[in-house]
Amino acid sequence: MSDSIGTLLATARAAKGVSLAEAATQLHCDEVLLRALEADRFEELGAPVFVQGHLRRYADYLGAPTEQLMGAWATLRAEKLAEPDLARIPRAPVRAVDPKVWTRRAVVAGITVLIAAAAWLILGWGSSSAPAPVVPTPAAVAKPSPAPALAPVTTSVPVSTPAPAPAVTPDAARAPTTDPTPVSTGAAVLRLVPRQSSWIEVYDASNRRRYYGNAAAGTPLALRGEAPFSVVLGRADAVAIELDGRPITLPAAFVYNATAFVTIDAAGNVQRAAARNTRSTAP
Known about the structure:
The structure is a single chain. By secondary structure, this protein is α+β, with helices and mostly antiparallel strands. Among the domains are: 5-80, lambda repressor-like DNA-binding domains (434 Repressor (Amino-terminal Domain)), CATH 1.10.260; 186-272, Immunoglobulin-like, CATH 2.60.40. Helix content is 32%, strand content 19%. The protein has helices at residues 5-16, 20-27, 31-38, 48-62, 66-80, 99-126, 170-173; strands at 186-194, 198-203, 209-215, 221-227, 229-233, 239-243, 246-248, 255-256, 259-264, 270-272.
């Protein structure tokens, strides 16, 4: 294939007669993402597995030769986007310590200490005559006359009676309290059916990995574990979800650039989850 992946995508989009903005609106993604694909700037799109998902989705939308583009992407990734060998990264040489420098520094420090000690001794001997302390003469203290005896005074201390507690009315006793809705937990079976190839990660309530990889189209996954499940979908628009036989629908607000990070509890409630910091070497 003589043309690059980005050139083939741009040619297919021109043949379809749509602009980058129109294509981004149809795919519910950022225009910057599509622009990076057409410019072969794949390093701006994150992990290789996400680049693969975006590329396949864009090619399917444009009607471009998807399998040909995915083969070119696999070759490009193997040749130019290999993981760096951290053991071969050059490092700055460690500067050797010169023992003469430390010797000179020690000599200078010793001379400074000797000079300070000599100055302290000279100043201490020069101030040998100190004025005698002045002892004040105590003044005559007048002897106070005894105070007259006073008759005892009896006072009564009032005892405060605690106020009765307010009575609880029946209406107040029946007043409801607002408690947060708890997350439903328990053993459940999560079933995922990808209509198209999609990256999928599933973790159970104990953070144990139940699935991690690129699921092929039409291959159902039945995962049993303790809910709530933490789910990562690279192609959220192309994966059907069921929990214990009940269909689960992801809100559109939880899907961004066709990717979704969600949690699903035992009752089927779906919540947005934080993105996991994963890095895969799956093709």
